Amino acid sequence: MKERAARLSALRREMNIFGMDGFIVPRSDEHQGEYVAPCSERLAWLTGFTGSAGFAIVLAKKAAIFIDGRYTLQVSQEVDEAAFDYRHVADEPASEWLAGELGAGMKLAYDPWLHTGPSLHRLKKACEKVGAKLVAAPHNFIDAIWADRPEPPLNPIYPHSLDYAGQSHGEKLSDIADKLRSEGQDAMVLSLPDSIAWLFNIRGSDIPCTPVGLGFALVHSQGTACLFMDHRKVGEEVRTHLGDNIKTYDPQDLAEHLDRLKGHKVRLDGTSAPKWIHEHLKKAKAEVVLGDDLTVLPKACKNAVEVDGMRNAHRRDGAAMVRFLYWLSKQPFSKGVHEMAVSQKVDSIRSEDELFYDLSFNTISGAGENGAIVHYRVSEESSIPLPENGLYLVDSGAQYRDGTTDITRTIVRGTPTDEMKDRYTRVLKGHIGVSATRFPKGTTGSQLDVLARHALWQAGLDYDHGTGHGVGSFLNVHEGPQRISKMPSKTALLGGMVISNEPGYYKAGEYGIRLENLICVQPSQKGEREMLEFEPLTLCPFDLKGVEASLLSSAEVNWLNAYHARVREELSPMLGEDEAAWLAEATQAI
């Protein structure tokens, strides 16, 4: 805490030197990704907060950190409440906090590389309301005081095999160029690393858990492109793979290429591109056309090769999970069976797969009360034994060369309480409600969200996170634009989209429950309208010791029994004799 207090004081001195009254510290980098390289962990360095979303605003005498509902417990454990106010970003927005803290003539600074235009809009309005100004900082004030800041990553990028991609990067580039021409646009700037990785069929390891390289790209309507990545990351194999139509440059060359776009219509996704790029294009007198990143939708709609890859990856991942659950079932209650050790065990089993590349996120391993922290990150200091009687939540996944996995299971240890079984079953009912539904083409995820929450709502319960997020193919474990959430969505669910189905329930200080499968949108039997349905990709049993069968309808029982029969049939040949016997018992019909 003393070290963080000194950092906060240093930041305030830096702000004062340059005549600024405040500075915004986001948990983001120049690419607006969920995971960032160590050199971009500015929010964690300043505050101690290690969550994947949030930001802080530091003024001369006050500071606040803004987080969503996933992190209300975590922020209190990691951030000094004497230095920062805790604010729920939806219930207590930054605009309200600033209205009470800023005054006329004050300047609130931001780094234009770390924010998008829309993310700054409300803050700009809040400043103007009290006569203050939102201004671009002359440099990043955190970087100026972070003496031992890590160097940017320089890990090499490499080609992603057509055996896994299913479509050549030449065909993808041609398709995007066609779309640009049809829109009357001359070029498009890409800033999302997964968009660049997908379009050019390349992968990297610049950030944790996500196989991408950091950089920018400029796609021209003639079917050519420029890739801006440090030349030390781009070897001869990649240059040969990219071919003559894709030229590589260092990132510092981006400004010069943007300057050449004077008078051209340039497409830019304002929701993901840094404010700096938008402002530079305007300064260069390019005609900026704000529109969706044209790679996002085709990337989300997996082709047949990618869907098969996801199926194969999930089958192997399911076998790894069953081996882990079998091992865990044999572990007695003891101090040695604690969150960290169990997390390391599931990670180790996965890593034995020949196509394993990395985890898809840091495993969430929450026993008892820690399971109620939605994005709990176990450490040596926080790790507690799994309960003798209670619940253990494990949310984990992997990056395999042929697909990305993400699964959550809540495991009953010993004897659960009646309340635990009631809550577990209501979460399971919500999971089945989503997975078993059929819906007409054009339906969005927000229209399905109620299916996951209905059983909980009837008991006066809910959960404070989305029901489902998109998942990439050996790419981001959290991918847009598809989602299942209370939040309105303009994106309809389309064939080939992979999305999570993960309702939950969390009782603060006691336990948490989440049940997650990945599901793939597929065509359904046609009626009067074109219909879609979900294919479960994840193969792993739900813990029947948590199920109160009397709360399930006959249709829900049939779904659960059919799912467990499929799990048993597909995974048993991949298991040892004892593991297969355990699986047979774990998937018995109810």
Automatic annotation (TrEMBL):
<protein>
    <submittedName>
        <fullName>Peptidase M24</fullName>
    </submittedName>
</protein>
<dbReference type="Pfam" id="PF01321">
    <property type="entry name" value="Creatinase_N"/>
</dbReference>
<dbReference type="GO" id="GO:0070006">
    <property type="term" value="F:metalloaminopeptidase activity"/>
</dbReference>
<dbReference type="InterPro" id="IPR000994">
    <property type="entry name" value="Pept_M24"/>
</dbReference>
<keyword id="KW-0645">Protease</keyword>
<feature type="domain" description="Peptidase M24">
    <location>
        <begin position="309"/>
        <end position="522"/>
    </location>
</feature>
<dbReference type="Pfam" id="PF16189">
    <property type="entry name" value="Creatinase_N_2"/>
</dbReference>
<dbReference type="InterPro" id="IPR029149">
    <property type="entry name" value="Creatin/AminoP/Spt16_N"/>
</dbReference>
<dbReference type="GO" id="GO:0046872">
    <property type="term" value="F:metal ion binding"/>
</dbReference>
<dbReference type="InterPro" id="IPR001131">
    <property type="entry name" value="Peptidase_M24B_aminopep-P_CS"/>
</dbReference>
<dbReference type="Pfam" id="PF00557">
    <property type="entry name" value="Peptidase_M24"/>
</dbReference>
<feature type="domain" description="Creatinase N-terminal">
    <location>
        <begin position="7"/>
        <end position="135"/>
    </location>
</feature>
<dbReference type="InterPro" id="IPR036005">
    <property type="entry name" value="Creatinase/aminopeptidase-like"/>
</dbReference>
<keyword id="KW-0482">Metalloprotease</keyword>
<dbReference type="GO" id="GO:0006508">
    <property type="term" value="P:proteolysis"/>
</dbReference>
<dbReference type="Pfam" id="PF16188">
    <property type="entry name" value="Peptidase_M24_C"/>
</dbReference>
<keyword id="KW-0479">Metal-binding</keyword>
<dbReference type="InterPro" id="IPR033740">
    <property type="entry name" value="Pept_M24B"/>
</dbReference>
<dbReference type="InterPro" id="IPR000587">
    <property type="entry name" value="Creatinase_N"/>
</dbReference>
<feature type="domain" description="Peptidase M24 C-terminal">
    <location>
        <begin position="530"/>
        <end position="590"/>
    </location>
</feature>
<keyword id="KW-0378">Hydrolase</keyword>
<dbReference type="InterPro" id="IPR032416">
    <property type="entry name" value="Peptidase_M24_C"/>
</dbReference>
<dbReference type="InterPro" id="IPR050422">
    <property type="entry name" value="X-Pro_aminopeptidase_P"/>
</dbReference>
<dbReference type="GO" id="GO:0005737">
    <property type="term" value="C:cytoplasm"/>
</dbReference>
<comment type="similarity">
    <text>Belongs to the peptidase M24B family.</text>
</comment>
